[in-house]
């Protein structure tokens, strides 16, 4: 029988479907936590339960030992709005961000806006690309130093027009197309330049037309790799394709001169070179785009600017300065972990964070002055890791109150990859403001009445305890000991009988689930790097990434290098 989104029909099918790690993750969590079999069915005896859990573990070992043989399907995709702006910045030197005017890109696969399935074209988007090309070239021509950089290959004004155009366009096409242009491609752009001259444009105007044509070419707007029709076995992608995969993974932009040089020298299949380039690129300031796009989309803290609007009358401390400080804290924290070889388990629990004066006041941390973010060590255990940060707490709250349901759902979905199913229809709603609850009843007691309904109990039994553990934080992340003058209960009881009280003990419960968190992180990172959702054939790679991370004492650098060196990252079919 199919329950929720889980079907065991795959057991009847041969091959890798039987070894779907994600399927067995769900089965394991349901059995381990005691939510399956349901309470109205005969429970498993202790020996039976352990036998199931042991088999799932042995199944993972078998999957990890199997060779990676299928890199999965990789589609042609367009640049998303962030990649487009960053690529124009690095190609032309402009400071504006034309892509910010584009429609938002959808998220797919593992939840990222670089997923090929969601990066479609439309008439509106094509108009935006045309406007973006016009604006970018206009900005270049308005700044002599940028125009001079583009025209640098032309050292004499006595050359024929076409010769000067070729000298300028050949290196430009190399960077714009992220590979050496063919002679036919170069002649095509020069033909456009020549046609502009014939229409009466001067040399300068014709060059602007040629540059715009390149910026509107599919070879610039699309990330496309060589295909080999009829080839049955996977093949290693060429060195320029490796350079593009690497640069859009870690910089969200095009390869730089150093990467293109290594590609020309045929060195980007060498694991040692890949490791060295990964370290170099993470250390470069352009690597901040990796933190912004990977961590921001995975953890949803980018929603702080478009989906968080606390009631200013109730939460008087909140303003746009504090909003920015909240974002800067979680960004600096994730950046330290991901780009500077931090321990990824710090995301679950840590004894430090990054604050400035406005945020320190909210957190009651004394002695911090100025708007600059700096690392501080906690003197108590109230906060630690992501679940103690204002950005996460505000994103998972409502305008007038906290939401244990949203906070518990965020922990399950973003940290443990165990999202609850959507709520059934007509289950009723809780009050939008906890102050509207009359009598002695607390908001928690009102929520417990709601979750007592049989149709609601199953999902809330896993979500709500995690959210209750964060109830000491109000809707903007400020510590509180009571709720509208009523006693505050921040205890939780998980379905498997694990109990805790308050944020510190809740974080210890999360640390007990570190294997699930590691799987979540590795899955999201691999999916982000491959621009697609993960498939069953990716799972041997996924399990080996987990092993690499654990052997490296959970340090991020080894994991990121392992992704870059992995079979699906370097191959296609």
Short description:
This protein has 573 residues and is mainly alpha-helical. The chain has 24 helices and ten strands. The longest helix has 20 residues, at 46-65.
Characterize the structure shown.
This protein has 573 residues and is mainly alpha-helical. It has 24 helices and 10 strands. The protein has helices at residues 21-33, 46-65, 81-92, 123-142, 144-150, 161-177, 183-198, 203-215, 218-221, 239-250, 257-264, 271-283, 288-299, 320-339, 357-363, 390-395, 404-415, 443-451, 454-468, 502-512, 514-530, 539-551, 556-564, 567-570; strands at 77-78, 222-223, 235-236, 352-355, 374-377, 482-483, 486-487, 491-493, 499-501, 571-572. A two-stranded antiparallel sheet has the order 1-2. Strand 6 and strand 7 form a beta hairpin. Helix 7 (183-198) crosses helix 8 (203-215) and helix 13 packs across helix 14.
Helix and strand layout, with pairings?
Elements (H helix, E strand, L loop, with lengths): L20 H13 L12 H20 L11 E2 L2 H12 L30 H20 L1 H7 L10 H17 L5 H16 L4 H13 L2 H4 E2 L11 E2 L2 H12 L6 H8 L6 H13 L4 H12 L20 H20 L12 E4 L1 H7 L10 E4 L12 H6 L8 H12 L27 H9 L2 H15 L13 E2 L2 E2 L3 E3 L5 E3 H11 L1 H17 L8 H13 L4 H9 L2 H4 E2 L1
The DSSP helix count reads 24
How much helix, percentage-wise, in residues? 40-55%
Q: What's the main sheet like?
A: 2 strands, antiparallel
Please tally the β strands and state the result: 10
Strand pairing plus helix content: what structural class?
mainly alpha
